[in-house]
Design goal:
Elements (H helix, E strand, L loop, with lengths): L12 H25 L5 E4 L6 E4 H25 L10 H12 L4
């Protein structure tokens, strides 16, 4: 795992995107395996915690989903506080719908 924070040369948008894509691929691989095996109640040890902690897969995935929502709303609130006009709640489905609207032919 790379040091945190990343060295200056690793802080470019391109390198950040590459790290995100690699982490996302591994996360998705684990999620699909857990789903396929219905292993939601199985536990694993997160050795990066101090001290190491034991979690269930269901609890971990729930944590990721919940905190993603919290962080997204916190970021939107900060943007609004800075005077940025932001529509919606930053939901990925809202974003995808906005892309579809852009692709629709003008009548």
């Amino acid at each position: 795992m790379p040091p945190y924070p990343a060295p200056r040369e690793a802080r470019t948008p391109e390198k950040m995107l590459a790290r995100f894509e690699a982490a996302d691929a591994k996360f998705t691989e684990i999620l699909r395996d857990v789903q396929k095996r219905s292993a939601w109640d199985e536990t694993f040890v997160d050795s990066l915690c101090e001290p190491p902690e034991t979690f269930t897969f269901a609890g971990m995935f729930g944590h990721v989903i919940t905190f993603n929502i919290h962080r997204r709303l916190t970021a939107l609130d900060a943007l609004r506080g800075l005077g940025v006009e932001v529509e919606g709640f930053g939901c990925p489905t809202e974003y995808e719908a906005s892309l579809r609207k852009c692709e629709e032919p003008v009548k």
